[in-house]
Amino acid sequence: MRAVPLAGLLAGCGGVQSALDPAGFEAEQVARLFWAMLVASGVIWVLVLGLAHYASGRREKPWSQRDAGRLIVWGGAVVPTLLLAVLLFFGLRLMPELRAPGGPLRVHVEGEQFWWRVRYHPPGGAPVESANALVLPVGQRVEFSLSTRDVIHSFWVPALGGKMDMIPGRTNRLVLEPTRTGEFRGACAELCGASHALMAFTVRVVEPAEFEAWLAREAAPAAAGTGHAGEAAFLAHGCGACHSVRGTAARGAIGPDLTHLASRPTLGAGILENSAANRAAFIARVDEIKPAARMPAYGTLLDTEIAAIAAWLGMLR
Ligand code: CUA
C-alpha cells in the first residue's frame, strides 16, 4: 500500500511538466533550491528526532539548570537561526540571476478564460499573433510580458521556470531561457473559473534556425486555399466575428487566432489532440468539453457543415 503514494511522488519527478526535470536556466535554479531545502529539512528532521529521543531517554535523570538552559539556547535559538540563515542566503543568492535581463525576443501572453493569447514581438519585425502553443529557441533568453483582462491567471511552464501571476490592470515580467530542445507543457496555476484545470498550453523548444523558420511561417497568412466548403460555412455561421484567420475574411479578436491552427499539437488550450474528430466535437459540444467557455456550442449546425469546418481548420498550416 505504501508504494502507491511513493509511485505517485516519483511520477512527478520527470516528464513534460516537471520542475524537477528542468529544461531551462530558471527551472535549474529552482530545482537546485528545492534539493538544497529538502536535504536541509532532512537534516533538521533527524536532529529534532535525535534530540527528542535523547530527552526521552533521560527522563530518570533530571536536567541541571545549566544543561537545560544550554539546550534551549543552542537547540532552540542558535542552531535553527544558523540553519535558516544559510537557507535564506542560498535562496536570496539565486534571485539576481532569476531577474537577469531578457534577450531581444519578446513574447506577450495574455490569460483569457480559458486559453492563452500569444503575441510574438521579434526584434525589428511586426508582431505575430498566435494562441495556446509556444515555440521557443533553445539557448536564448526570452522576455515574457504577462497580462489579463478578466480574472487572475498564472503562467507556469514547470520545466522551464516561473511561475508568474497575470493580474488585471498590470503587466508582469518573466524571463525564461530554455537549455535543451523538447516538448513541454505549461498550465494555468491560479484558480480562474470552471475550466481552470482545462487551461494548458504546449511549449516546443527548437534550434534557433528552426525557430526563425517557424516564426516566418506563423507570420504569413493561412496556407489553405480559399473556396473550401468549410471556409464558407465558417464565415456564414459568424465564426469570423470572434476568430481571426489571416488571409480570409475572418477578422475577429475575441477568441483565439486560428490562422495556423493545424500546426498546433493540441486543441482547446492543451486539452485535446488536434484531430478532425476532436475539432468537430469541440465545435458541436464545447459547453461539455470546456464548461463556462465564452464560445457557444454549435450543435445545431448540420453534421456535414461541422465536418467541413473541421476539415478546413485542419488545412490551416
Ligand atoms: Cu486561468 Cu486558471
UniProtKB/TrEMBL annotation:
Keyword Transport attached: yes
Enzyme's top EC category: translocase
PROSITE patterns membership: COX2, COX2_CUA, CYTC
Annotated GO biological process: ATP synthesis coupled electron transport
Transmembrane stretches, start-end: 34-56, 68-92
Catalytic activity entry: 4 Fe(II)-[cytochrome c] + O2 + 8 H(+)(in) = 4 Fe(III)-[cytochrome c] + 2 H2O + 4 H(+)(out)
Domain of life assignment: Bacteria
InterPro entries: CcO_II (IPR045187), CcO_II-like_C (IPR002429), Copper_CuA (IPR001505), Cupredoxin (IPR008972), CuRO_CcO_Caa3_II (IPR034236), Cyt_c-like_dom (IPR009056), Cyt_c-like_dom_sf (IPR036909), Cyt_c_oxidase_su2 (IPR014222)
Residue ranges of domain Cytochrome c in the record: 225-317
Family: Belongs to the cytochrome c oxidase subunit 2 family.
Protein name per UniProt: cytochrome-c oxidase
Organism of origin: Teichococcus rhizosphaerae
